[in-house]
Amino acid sequence: MKKNLLFFSAMAVPFFANAQITCQTKQNAPLKPQTYVATGNKFVELNGNGIVKSSVTRSTCSDKIKYVDRSGTPPAGNQIYLGGTVGWNELFQVYPGFTGQITRIDFQGGNWGSTETVTLKVHPVSSGAPSLAVLGSVTVNVTSASGEFGANFSSPINVTGGFAVSVAKPAAATDSIFVYYMDEFVGDDFAYLYNGSSMYSARMDYSSDIDMMIRPTIQFSLGAPTLSASPTSLCEGSSSYIDIVSYPTLPWSSSYWNIYNPDGFSGSSANFGDASTGTLPSSHTYNTAGSITASATVTYDGWTSNCTSDAGTASITVNPDPVANFSWSSTNLAVTFTNLSTGATTYNWLFGDGGNA
Question: What is the per-residue DSSP string for 3-66?
């Protein structure tokens, strides 16, 4: 721009350019509470701050389930017999509500002094009760009077909406083994006994919540948490409040949380995108301008092994602080100013003689 000077003297007249930037916010987080509503499996934010949805890749978790009830360990004397002249043909333990894969079956029991071969099977369930249909089976040798015995499937068994695991009697008519159980006398209908022609519920028919020591290894996908960042655009030296607004969807209903996941999600691990790490929630200060991708994973605590989820992400823009700068040249009494300021969205010129623009 040009400004004609009416008076000019030998003394230098000072000129100033004052550059200003309008940022989304300069206040430190946390900000006002955020509100979300669930729509299907997504969350929609109501207060205008941005959310980045979970990643679409999946981590694979594997965990061997101890037993369906969580109180204590099975008494060594509680045994149910399989085979022989007085034993059952098959013992079932139901694991409801799970969708995923079964990779291995273990059970706790023993023989009567000689190695016996038994069959471990995976079954579908119908109305909570096990079906005699077989999704997959594997044989295992019971080699001692007491121990845990099991085998891997040659390929994972896919199950949907729950499954049952059974231990079948030895092949020879006179041979027998036993399986340990825990007897709570209360609880759900998870254990079933089969005599070759009829299926019996341990709780309904025998008034006892028998929990068989049959331990499947489940395998499933664990996605990413959904993160929020508030604000998503800020100035250098300002903070964004980053938090997890929803955890990965687990492949079972909340009714059966304790069966598959005894301790829930134990914590988070965050990478704030600027070479710093921590846990969430966190009010994190960004000191360097740029496009930032913050990410976080959560840890799922299983019975025998834990699993780290995929990383959920949130995008944050850190705007540079404005720098006021200009150059000038003059022809006679006309002075031309060139704006060299950076990082600004609005400008205010103070020409030193009371004039501005």
Answer: EE-S---SSPPP-EEEEE---S--SPSP-SPP-EEEETTEEEESSS--EEPPPS--EEEEEE--
Which residue type occupies 336? Answer: T
From the CB of residue 189, how many other CB atoms can be counted at a distance below 10 Å?
15
pLDDT digits (tens), the chain, 357 positions:
433 333 322 233 333 444 443 443 333 333 223 222 222 322 222 233 333 333 334 578 899 998 777 665 656 668 999 998 889 999 999 999 999 999 999 999 999 989 999 999 999 999 889 999 999 999 999 999 999 999 999 999 999 999 999 999 998 878 999 999 887 656 677 999 999 999 999 888 887 778 899 999 999 988 899 999 999 999 999 999 999 999 988 888 878 888 888 777 888 999 999 999 999 999 999 999 999 999 999 998 888 888 899 999 999 999 998 888 889 898 988 888 899 888 777 888 888 888 888
With beta carbons less than 8 A apart as the criterion, state whether 63 and 161 touch. Answer: no
Q: For the chain, what's the residue count?
A: 357
User: What is the rounded distance in angstroms from the CA atom of residue 80 to the CA atom of residue 139?
Assistant: 19
pTM summary value: 0.73
